[in-house]
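User: ok so my PI wants both of these folded by tonight, can you help

Assistant: No problem, let's get them done. Here's the first:
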Amino acid sequence: MAISITEDIRSITDLKRNTTAVLKQIHTTKRPVVLTVNGKAEAVIVDAKEYEKITNAFNLLKLLTPAEEDIKEGRYTEAKNFFKEFKSAKEISS
């Protein structure tokens, strides 16, 4: 979802004048549009489905962060050992 500098940066005035065209562009390209005020980025418009994908990916990343910290700190068990201990605790024979 790389932004095209020539197509995806537009002014608020352009959005006001060409709302339908800007929305069509967002839906067609699936790329966000950066809106500017006085030449500076002010907001980003994104297709609703793309926003859901981004949000879902971000939420998954947030779930993985504690696991990565556990690995860095050495708080983990090798799978082989985990299953051995699990079977023993649950009295499951191989």
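One down. Here's the second:
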Amino acid sequence: MVNFYRGIGIAVLSLVIFGSLIGCPKKQAETATQNIPAPNQETPAPPPSVVEPPPAAEPPPVTEKEITRAPVPVKADEELKDIFFDYDKSTIRPDAKEALDADVRWLKANAQAKVKIEGHCDERGTNEYNLALGERRAHSIKQFLVTQGISPSRISTISYGEDRPFCTDSNESCFKLNRRAHFVMTR
């Protein structure tokens, strides 16, 4: 009986060894056959290849420096002009009267328009002081508009102090751009 099991074991072992030697049949590699034309035969033209155009070049991103170099005065909503102030002042400068008169004419011609006046400051001073100064600037513009016949119900004010600068350089040419009242159209 032992010989019987030994014979079966040898047979199984032989099958395993034989199977591993033979292994799985391999796929034959696909080879492209070349059609070599016989002498004096024309070679057929290859099919036209599809050439995709290169992707369009994207414009370079705008840097913060380029944004801060925008022309002055800054126009809000392309209609109303910003009003600029002297350092630490909320009184309307004489050179701002022309811009304000143009703003009044536009507001009278567009009686349905409502605006928010944002008061802004440069970075000098404390946050609290600049918020109060920005509020005084916005209110002085509102008072001017009201005295010119614009309904106070069409005008709201807010102060951002130094929190939303137009220009971020720390020099006087930049500071003067940030001392402003800015108009925003509202509904």
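The chain has a mean pLDDT of 74. The longest strand covers residues 114-120. Good luck tonight!
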